[in-house]
């Protein structure tokens, strides 16, 4: 018995030693270090590495060919090794913003062991850091500040249309318990994402907390749905198991969806209006989304023209049926159902129809076709164009601006 206890004690001490080693292995390597002049220094202790490079969205972007066309990806630079085996690189001065990065060691991607802060985008993890900047800057809006905080909840609900118990993320503003009749923003993610995307990658809670605290946005609920109608929740967080997240299901055969996202969307609205202290009617509802979620917002708004007074399309995957070899604008003009739906939508006089996209976004031309269609029909909309492509840096900007325009 004593020998068993001694063995257990040694195992426990060994585990503690390993934990201590893990705790202190990178204690003398500070990375990233935000310098007083606004530059940032990255460091990695890797004495046996042959090559170490840094890849990040603050470096000059590279263009790559994908199944969706030409897209931009983060650039990379070589890091330099010192006599102690520490590789380092110092950036140029960076503007206030949330940035992401990884190391590439001997051709393999690695997370920074000195930085515990990271995000998952589909199946890729990256480290993150924030250059905060002055009050009201992007970095400040994306930071947790000393302001009243709303709450984030993972909420399960029944979707009769999809025949599933599903999950969404719901943000309730600070003081929600004391108020009533809040308006609701329905915020939709892109392809490969889930109900965690906007709260984690998009910093939705921080943005809303900071805007509401300064009076730039009205207190509102923000409902972040799962836009994959064949799933119940994020990968690994429902009964289908711990499959690899990917654009197409990660190589697993996911269930067949019982209906489309737009056909099932009022299940979400009905649940929110039954269970939360919200105001009803189109004047108290807004819907917006990025990429696929922008396409969903586009479809939902015209399918339910009496339901949303504010519509935001962020780098939206807009389209209509027909032969994809036919130009989109031509298909829009010739599709009788589409024309009827759009005529009905704009006859209801939505208070805001907002389109935003980056200049180098691979969906730029399809959004241009939509604007040309709206212009020809005389349908009013607002347009916001930014630098950059199909990236979260743009979508955080769009949410920040859209949230300040609604429910006024």
Please tell me about this protein's structure.
By secondary structure, this protein is of the alpha+beta class. It folds into 2 domains: 26-131, Immunoglobulin-like (Sandwich), CATH 2.60.40; 140-243 and 255-405, Rossmann fold. 28% of the residues lie in helices and 26% in strands. The protein has 10 helices and 20 strands. The strands form 4 sheets. The protein has an 8-stranded mixed beta sheet, with helices on both faces.
For the biggest β-sheet, the strand order reads 13-14-16-15-17-18-19-20
Give the SSE order as H and E letters: HEEEEEEEEEEEEHEEEHHEHEHEHHEHEH
Estimate the strand proportion.
25-35%
Q: What about the largest sheet?
A: 8 strands, mixed
What would you give as the CATH superfamily of the largest domain? Alpha/Beta hydrolase fold, catalytic domain
Top-tier CATH class of the largest domain: Alpha Beta
Question: In terms of topology, how is this protein built?
Answer:
Layout: H1 2-24, E1 33-34, E2 40-45, E3 52-56, E4 62-66, E5 69-73, E6 75-78, E7 80-81, E8 86-90, E9 97-105, E10 108-110, E11 118-121, E12 124-131, H2 138-141, E13 151-159, E14 164-172, E15 184-188, H3 197-200, H4 204-213, E16 221-224, H5 261-275, E17 285-290, H6 292-303, E18 310-314, H7 328-334, H8 336-347, E19 352-358, H9 364-377, E20 382-386, H10 392-405
Parallel strand pairs: 15-16, 15-17, 17-18, 18-19, 19-20
Antiparallel strand pairs: 1-2, 2-8, 3-6, 3-9, 4-5, 7-8, 9-10, 9-12, 11-12, 13-14, 14-16
Helix pairs in contact: 4-10, 5-6, 7-9
């Amino acid at each position: 018995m004593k020998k068993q206890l001694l063995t257990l004690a040694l195992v426990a001490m060994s585990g503690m030693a390993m934990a201590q080693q893990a705790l202190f292995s990178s204690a003398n390597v500070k990375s990233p270090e935000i310098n007083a002049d606004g530059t940032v220094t990255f460091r990695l202790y890797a004495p046996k590495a042959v090559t170490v490079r840094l890849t990040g969205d603050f470096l000059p972007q590279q263009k790559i060919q994908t199944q969706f066309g030409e897209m931009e990806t983060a650039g990379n630079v070589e890091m330099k090794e010192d006599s102690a085996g520490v590789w380092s690189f110092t950036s140029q001065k960076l503007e206030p913003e949330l940035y992401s990065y990884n190391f590439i060691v001997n051709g393999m991607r690695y997370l920074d062991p000195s930085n515990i802060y990271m995000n998952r985008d589909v199946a890729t993890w990256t480290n993150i850091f924030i250059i905060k900047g002055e009050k009201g800057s992007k970095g400040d809006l994306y930071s947790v500040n000393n302001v009243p905080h709303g709450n984030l909840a993972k909420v399960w609900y029944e979707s009769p249309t999809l025949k599933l118990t599903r999950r969404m993320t719901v943000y309730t503003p600070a003081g929600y318990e004391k108020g009533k009749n809040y308006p609701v923003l329905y915020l939709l993610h892109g392809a490969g994402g889930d109900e965690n995307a906007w709260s984690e990658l998009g910093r939705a809670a921080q943005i809303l907390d900071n805007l509401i605290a300064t009076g730039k946005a009205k207190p509102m609920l923000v409902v972040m749905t799962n836009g994959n109608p064949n799933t119940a929740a994020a990968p690994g967080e429902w009964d289908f198991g711990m499959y690899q997240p990917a654009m197409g299901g990660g190589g697993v055969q996911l269930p067949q969806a019982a209906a489309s996202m737009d056909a099932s969307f009022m299940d979400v609205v009905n649940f929110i209006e039954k269970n939360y202290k919200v105001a009803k009617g189109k004047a108290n509802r807004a819907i917006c989304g990025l990429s696929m979620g922008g396409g969903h917002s586009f479809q939902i708004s015209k399918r339910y023209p009496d339901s949303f007074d504010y519509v935001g399309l962020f780098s939206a995957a807009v389209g209509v049926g027909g032969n994809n070899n036919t130009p989109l604008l031509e298909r829009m003009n010739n599709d009788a159902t589409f024309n009827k739906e759009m005529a009905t939508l704009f006859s209801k006089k939505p208070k805001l129809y907002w389109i935003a996209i980056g200049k180098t976004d691979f969906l730029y031309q399809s959004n241009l076709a939509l604007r040309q269609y709206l212009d020809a029909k005389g349908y009013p909309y607002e347009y916001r164009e930014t630098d950059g492509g199909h990236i979260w840096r743009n979508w955080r900007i769009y949410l920040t601006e859209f949230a300040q325009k609604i429910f006024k």
